[in-house]
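Pipeline run #58 for the internal structure catalog. This entry was flagged by the ingest filter as a single-chain record with no existing model, so it goes straight to prediction. Upstream metadata was stripped on purpose; only the residue string is passed forward. Reviewer on rotation: M.T. Logging verbosity set to normal.
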Amino acid sequence: MKYFPTLVMICFVSFFTQAQTDDDTSTQKDSTWTTEGSFQFLINQAAFNKDWQGGGTSNYSANVVINYDINYNKEKWTWDTKILGDYGINKTKDQDFYRKTSDRLEINSTVGRQIDKSKWYTSGFVNFRTQFDKGYDFGEDAEGNQIRDLRTQFMSPAFTQLGIGALWKQSDDIRVNISPVTGRIITANSRFTTIPGYVDGDFFGLDEGKTIRTEFGASINAFVKFKLMENITVGNVLGLYSNYLEDPQNVDIDYTLNLVMSVNEYISANFTFQAIYDDNAVRGFQVREVLGVGFNYNF
């Protein structure tokens, strides 16, 4: 896994290069406000009767994704906001509980004022990230019964970043924000930091009994979206953060690749890959992949 960050960066740079090439030949819309969004519902199901000899367990999974962009461009001012909601569950016949396959609520908003006639802007940004539903660790008790222990929930944790810096913007679909002055606030319900035997930092860096952790550091946020080929769109979101006050060399990474393959106006196949590194949560990469075919509606 030690080469994983390098691999992610190479992929992102290659996408960025392709996106910039594609954008150079496009015509920009002359509009102050532009909005674009999509709703996706993906479902997978497998069923086996009792006489099936090939092995297998009946199961189903469902995933809902909402992706919405709001862009403002007028004279020297630009304001870009992205809202992302992603929730999925999986249930097999032998499980007493459903399990989440994805759970994410994120809002990114960046405002900038153009410097002369360049592609650079002075900028300020806010980023908010949490989850919709409770998260659990699953296991068995001494009698072999399935049990689950609460691990996370809505607003526990919640991450809020605010910063100022510089924005480089090629278009609404290609932008990079660099913020050497970034404050980050991590919040959680006290139930997670007051359990017996709690050690400072165990829950996303929070000290025992605390509900708020404040940090000060630097961040880079990039967004690149482009059409790979006809009916195939690739979206990339990359977030990097370094805490000046504690282990600045341990850079937090949050990278998401979303590949949408449209069959027609309402049917699409979607592939999502996300990799997170946050040593306050776990000293290793958190990786998830979701692939499905389902209903798609653009608005």
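catalog note: Residues 1-29 have pLDDT under 50 and may be disordered.
catalog note: The longest strand covers residues 212-229.
status: ready for reviewer M.T.
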